[in-house]
Amino acid sequence: MEPLTSKKKVLEQKPLTFAERMYLPAIAKGLTVTFSHLFKKEATIRYPEQEREFSTNFRGMHSLKRDEEGKERCTACGLCALSCPAEAITMIAAERKPEEKDLYREEKYASVYEINMLRCIFCGLCEEACPKEAIYLDGPIVPADYLRKDFIYGKDKLVEQPLNNKQ
Amino acid sequence: MDIAFVIEKFVLVTIIFAISLLIAMYSTYAERKVAAFLQDRLGPDRAGPFGILQPLADGVKMFMKEEIIPSNANKWLFMVGPGLAMLTACIGTAVIPWGSAITIGDRVIPLQVTDINVGILYIFGVVSLGVYGVMIGGWASNNKYSLLSAIRAASQNISYEIAMGLSIIALLLVTNSMSLKEIVEQQHGWHWNVLYQPLGFLIFMICAFAETNRAPFDLPECETELIGGYHTEYSSMKLGFYLFAEYINMFVSSAVMATLYFGGYNYPGMDWVLVHTGPVIGPLIGTLVFFIKIFAFIFFFMWVRWTIPRFRYDQLMHLGWKGLIPLAIANIIVTGIVIAIIEKF
């Protein structure tokens, strides 16, 4: 059969010379190669004292954002829960009372907003679906824990951006 | 035989035993560190500063694990196997000259437990007994794969013992004595035996690699091919004994190689040092130099492990019987001819 490309490498099967059959020169060469690795920089990252940098598109923990006046953007529309392929988001909507005008942007807000971090696959579809630009996946990697129930992150605990000095 | 003699031998034996266990323990640490640095990574460095306490952690782990004995295993032999491996590893240190004699007051204390006049033969016998530990371990496990692996290990050991013995014969032609102390004393200054017997040293070193089941000859215990080999069924401290005996064997082999071929406790310039540092410090400096040589050999063992791929079983047998034995015999013949010619003139 004809070869498919014009790049063909012809291997010469010469019998081994005496030096090659002894393997000692080859072993010595291998030993110098290995020895040179003693003086190279190690590639180890000493976690948790050192951490590797993430790329700009890395999707970490969720955070619900606030606007410039410090009011929560999330209006509990449910589009993120609808788009979540793992059904990790649940929420309960509530009506804003007149005295809470500074806390929430619109009249509907999420009184309970829970993400089950064990179900979440960090795909970012909730971030793409949100019409209010409320949820972003820009946090660090979710830390480990012992109990399953501790992985359901509620609104006040961990899913919220900390208040800036306006509040 | 006065009481001071007994005490001095007892203290020497205890010190040597403790030092060999300590060195074997830190060989495990050094193995992991050297392996890591050769592979562009850091080794264990969490247990204590720079991971110094890692061998202690490993020892505690070995003690704390559950002791499992297979139900149809031969209980007595199962327990004797690791014990025998450890015993033959440790008694090899008894005839090695660790230094020239130190003089305290008016007593001259030789730094060697016994100076029998068949020292090399003793070492050789102990190495041969070491095969029993492996074979008993494989047989007593009641596991046909362990048995196969133990048989392979035993056949490897006995094949390379022969070449080792033959290379020692060539050395005996040069030194005219089997006592290790006399061999070391003939290598005063820098007249090390490796200059007179380079090929013999090479053969001996390759056989030492094979005898300690180390580096390219570690087929009996490589995990990729035979799971655990002859120590698959062992757990907790019995396994710890097998693994530890391997490191003690490595230490004793390095000590024997340094003694026979690299001058033991001799070094160039030792006369000046002995005159200027007195009868106690001078020999101890020789002992220090000896330990430096041993550590260099141990580093070489570890260095080779991560450089050369493992031998296949038939390649191993081919090298032992068809490669090294003819080479060692040729070495004896050439050495004999050269000595006869030199003596004529």
Tell the overall outline of chain B.
globular
Continuous helix count of chain A: 4
- Lateral arrangement of strands in the main beta sheet of chain B: 1-2
Major pleated sheet of chain A: 3 strands, antiparallel
Would you report the number of β strands of chain A?
5
User: In angstroms, what separates the terminal alpha carbons of chain B?
Assistant: 46 Å
Based on DSSP secondary structure assignment, what is the total number of beta strands of chain B? 2
Helical residue percent of chain B?
55-70%
Structural class call of chain B reads mainly alpha
Strand count, sense and barrel status of the largest sheet of chain B are:
2 strands, antiparallel
Percent of residues in helices of chain A comes to 10-25%
Specify which chain pair forms the largest interface. Answer: A-B, 14 and 12 residues
Radius of gyration of chain A: 29 Å
First-last Cα distance of chain A: 79 Å
| CATH architecture call of the domain at 63-153 in chain A | 2-Layer Sandwich
Mean pLDDT of chain A: 86
Question: From N to C, what is the helix and strand string of chain B?
Answer: HHHEEHHHHHHHHH
Round the Cα radius of gyration of chain B to an integer and report it.
Answer: 21 Å
Summarize the helix and strand pattern of chain A as letters.
Answer: HHEHEEHEE
What does this structure look like?
The complex is a heterodimer of chains A (167) and B (345). With 167 residues, chain A is of the alpha+beta class. Chain A has helices at residues 18-22, 24-36, 79-83, 125-129, and strands at residues 63-64, 89-95, 108-116, 135-136, 152-153. Chain A has a domain at 63-153: Alpha-Beta Plaits (2-Layer Sandwich). Chain A contains four helices and five strands. In chain A, the strands form two sheets. In chain A, strands 2-3-5 form a three-stranded antiparallel sheet. A two-stranded antiparallel ribbon of chain A has the order 1-4. Chain A is elongated, with a radius of gyration of 29 Å. The model of chain A has no long low-confidence stretch (mean pLDDT 86). Chain B has 345 residues and is mainly α. Helix content of chain B is 70%, strand content 3%. Chains A and B meet through helix 2 of A and helix 1 of B.
